[in-house]
Specification:
The chain is of the alpha+beta class. The protein is 46% helix and 21% strand. It is built from twelve helices and eleven strands.
Length: 332
């Protein structure tokens, strides 16, 4: 008969105030854990926005590549070599580099990420770029990231009000700015390493970064023929291209970026540490709650033991209490 009595629940609910305090503590730990995981996911999501919004089946990068914020260029000829494989239909080079954008109101300069491509077609999945990319064929025109941080000034607001917006871009090695005009907006957003983005044509990119060699690109976008097996082509390219480049599919490209932020950056270490600490705190809190509850019911457990109940039954009661606390603590 006693097996049908919800002993675990009755012991927990006997002292209602203690039970509610225990649930509040567990709920706090659960919220803490989810907050840390949320911060970590925000880091990954923002760091991989570009990876998700560029066209391509496979991606070619330098073997020295670390991340978008500290990447290495490689010869453009490596990208064109991939056209020698029968399942490769077309390729597109992408140039990326940090510049300094001068706030048109305050005159202060802030780092901004510049992406350059050949605007004969759109290589971005962003709807604004797909619709108006041909505007970049006009010299010295740029698209500005409306989701950029506010320190760049009211550029997006002025453009949305149909006001002409001109600004100066400075390369990190240059003292003289290059004047450009905003001809469109898009939404990509900042990350922990990038405050804002500009999209320009490859010719404008080279005029801004005069020290750059047009034959050195940063990311190669590889488009396969319809029906091609991307994994097989990936293997063929990896086996036949020189070792100074790497080929990845989109998933691996994104995971590579995530691993960089997780393992090689201080903020990734901090987030991982916070998640671990949250888990440890949770274990300690639940342990203390169960320890206190068991200590206050030692007489009942001793009575059950004297009645012939085995340790297995007593352990089951304790585990049931742990599950009840975890379930009810998670609900809020």
């Amino acid at each position: 008969m006693i097996l049908n009595i919800p002993l675990a629940w009755l012991q927990l609910a006997k002292q209602k105030v203690r039970f509610l305090v225990a649930l509040a503590g567990i709920s706090f730990v659960a919220v803490l854990m989810f907050m840390q995981i949320g911060f970590q996911d925000a880091l990954y999501a923002s760091a991989t926005q570009l990876h998700k919004n560029i066209e391509g089946d496979l991606f070619l990068i330098s073997a020295q590549y670390k991340s978008l914020t500290s990447n290495q260029s490689f010869p453009r000829s490596r990208l064109y070599q991939t056209l020698g494989f029968k399942d490769v239909e077309s390729v597109d080079p992408l140039y990326v580099q940090f510049a300094k954008l001068k706030n048109p109101v305050t005159g202060r300069k802030y780092p901004i990420y510049v992406l350059g491509f050949d605007p004969v077609k759109s290589i971005f999945k962003l709807p604004e770029i797909q619709q108006d990319f041909k505007l970049l064929q006009i010299p010295d025109q740029v698209f500005f990231d409306r989701a950029a941080r506010p320190e760049f000034g009211p550029i997006a607001q002025h453009y949305s009000q149909n006001k002409p917006v001109s600004m100066e871009i400075f390369s990190y090695l240059g003292l003289i700015g290059y004047k450009v005009r905003v001809s469109g907006l898009f939404s990509l957003g900042p990350s922990f390493g990038v405050d804002g983005n500009l999209i320009v044509s490859d010719s404008t990119f080279m005029r801004v970064f005069r020290e750059r060699n047009a034959n050195q690109i940063d990311i190669g976008l590889i488009h396969l023929r319809p029906g091609a097996d991307s994994q097989r082509v990936l293997g063929e390219l990896s086996a036949n291209l020189p070792e100074d480049v790497m080929v990845m599919n989109r998933h691996d490209f994104i995971e590579f970026e995530k691993n960089y932020w997780t393992l090689r950056t201080p903020i990734g270490f901090v987030f991982n540490l916070m998640v671990i600490m949250g888990f440890v705190v949770g274990v300690i809190v639940v342990y203390q709650i169960l320890y206190s509850n068991i200590s206050s019911h030692l007489i009942e457990f001793a009575t059950l033991k004297a009645m012939g109940f085995k340790n297995k039954y007593l352990l089951r009661v304790v585990f049931q209490q742990a599950l009840i606390l975890a379930g009810l603590g998670y609900i809020p």
